[in-house]
Prior knowledge:
The chain has three domains: 3-53, CAT RNA-binding domain (Transcription Regulation, Sacy, Chain A, Roll), CATH 2.30.24.10; 74-172, Orthogonal Bundle (PTS-regulatory domain, PRD), CATH 1.10.1790; 181-285, PRD domain (PTS-regulatory domain, PRD, Orthogonal Bundle), CATH 1.10.1790.10. It is 58% helix and 9% strand. It is built from eleven helices and five strands. The protein has helices at residues 59-69, 74-90, 100-115, 125-131, 133-150, 156-172, 181-199, 208-223, 234-246, 248-264, 271-285, and strands at 3-11, 14-18, 24-28, 41-43, 49-52. Strands 4-1-2-3-5 form a five-stranded antiparallel sheet. A hairpin with a 5-residue loop joins strand 2 and strand 3. Helix 8 packs antiparallel against helix 11 and helix 10 crosses helix 11 (271-285). The protein is elongated. GO terms for molecular function: RNA binding. It comes from Lacticaseibacillus camelliae DSM 22697 = JCM 13995. Pfam families: CAT_RBD (PF03123), PRD (PF00874). Keywords: Repeat.
Amino acid sequence: MNILLISQVLNNNVILVEDGQDQQKIIWGRGIGFKAHAGNHYELQKTDRVFSAVPSDDEQWIGQFKELSEKIPREYFELTEKIIHLAQSQIDADFDEHLLIPLTDHIYFAVERVKMGLNLANPMLYDLKRFFSKEFAVGKQAQEMIQQLSGEPISDDEAGFITIHLVEHEIQNSKSSVDTFASFLEITTDVNNIIEAAFGRKFSDDSIAVNRLMTHLHYLILRSGSKHVTTTSPDDSALLEALKRGHPRAGNCLDQVVSYLAQKLDYKFTDSDRLYLLIHIVHITE
């Protein structure tokens, strides 16, 4: 990609181009928009930074990029793109360019708040660590990357806010019947509380078994609302009944969890779904 067709000049340093393969790109380079016009050709320079863009009919995204690129240094867009790639490599979800705008905006102004001595506490931090371990792990790595770029101390609270952005993006890109992070967190918290109440005790926040259950629940919520119908094998049904007989307390807890989830989600539970949930409950509690 060397010679590009300019679709739009966003400002003196940023242009929107067509790459000849029906893809749009954002090109950011010093002064490249000065005296440039739509329809002109542009030759990519070594110092230019290329960002993937969303489809041209998403005028809101283009407008937001134009607005933020006039306020926020290019380094923060580059940092956010690295964080998105990090999330793509560590979380089984589709993180695309739509995340670039809100996450860059959040990170830059979070740093500006820290510079002014305004540290924003995250009241959901405890639950974010427990229930969204993969996303929080990315948030922690992002926290270090932001500190390196800005030279400012970034707290775990900020890692939590980045976690929320990641989960919200997963929800928006799914067919889930749950459409807000608040509802997502409420369901996850309630399931945890049902299990703890059924067994009369709390479970370790660092438990691998708890993390596995929450990851399983996470993806179950994300696929709720899908019209895809899952089937159950006779072996799964037989194993479910055998496991419930061997672990009656866990079996009763399973029934409470499924009854609750059936009220909250547009999802038809199969015996296979129940089996995997029960296995997780047994691992946590016994």
